[in-house]
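Handover notes (outgoing to incoming on-call)

Open items:
1. SGNH hydrolase-type esterase domain-containing protein: sequence verified, structure written out, both below. Nothing else pending on this one.
2. Nothing else urgent.
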Amino acid sequence: MSSTRRRKNHKSLCRGGGNAVLCGFILSACQHFIPEAKSPPPPPIKEIDSRLETNAAPLRSGNGLASQNPNMAQDNSDYLEFPHSLDRFFQALATLEGGAAKRDVLITQLGDSHTVADWGTAAFRRYLQSQFGNGGRGFVALGKPMNGYIQQGVRGDMSTGWVTERPKLVQGQWAGDGYYGLNGMAIKTSRKNASAWIDIRVPITSVEIAYFKQPRGGQFDVLIDGKVIGRVSSASSVRGSGFFPMRVQRSSCRVQVRTVGDGEVRIFGATLEHTYIGITVDAVGSNGARVTTPLQSNEDHLMEQLRHRNPELFIVAYGTNEAGDDVPIRTYENRLTELFDRIARSVPKASCLILSPPDRVKKTPEGWVSLPKIRAIMAFQRRVAASRGCAFYSLFNAMGGAGAIRSWATELPPRAQQDGVHLTREGYALLGRRLAFSILRAYGAWRMAHGLPPRSQAPVSVAEWRNLNYKNNEHRELTLLSQ
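SGNH hydrolase-type esterase domain-containing protein structure tokens:
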């Protein structure tokens, strides 16, 4: 990473409209700025092979015996396919690393419960930010749109009276108006003095609240640590997205909205950014989501949301829920193709990456077996990746293939939960680091192919990252996430 850290131009916060006039004086909301801790970057250690992974503390099986899990993929294996599809993303990284970037390099991941938990994306985010700088936390929901919504560095809640608006299946048909925001779920209410908030536990310098503009839309106040800093009207003659930007310079803060009660208010979420240009990673989606879920959003609305975020890399991570249903594979393949066509129309310059589902097992009379549909899903994901110019990464293979999730569940401490579907924070974090490491290795090869000098800071391997960080900041953050 360049030794000179470039600051963002916060004039970009004022995107026009009636709320832009507030940009000049909102700094008073959070007075006592605590600057970002300038910890040194990880040492430029050369990439090592998998022997360091086995030199780490041995994993233990459920019977307490030390074992090297045969289903444990080593961190020198690479499961990233079609890396040439990431050329534009790599160019953005090179521009960032060279000190010429004028904005963050944004990665937006859209997926199901694996993504929403943010344990894997948090580790992915931290790994890349350790290499290229912290551009901010990214997009998060405001309030608590569903149980189990966990995001690094923020905690949300809300008063009674709010309901979550998201696509729903009713008697086999999708229901909803299609205006759900980037997350695919929004909170709404018509009550007076209904409040929703997030407590931010990471350093930020700006917040942007995304909301729904609609006929007869209500007003809401925006508060920082209990102080009203502006009132927003969501009334509009046409339906669309609204964005309310503000500067908040503090290492922790409560951002809150409170309704006036003169009409429906619908909140999509908030974007949290940092002064310095670097990497930002959005983890968006909802529990139980399938690739068909984002297609239930109004297409113009989804395109508007994507264009506003304008990521350099868009990651799509579905397949776990599809593996357990009886919908034909061809249907999902068509839907995935349709989703990427919409993404391409929205952000045509963004690189794209498809993540396979991790392993999923079910119990049978013969024992625990991986769902056979997973391999069929990965096959069509590869086909779509190849046809739409996207990279592909197999989480299934990265964790060890068929049966790996059951082996992970019997380890002490376990890296997978007992349901045969979800991982623990340790398991998700390991896969997140492995994905980041594979991307950085491909980026290093891209630099060589384009005649650029080797990176001054070599990517730290998964094993080294664990040894350097697990007992310190990352363990602390993951513990907070589990609370």
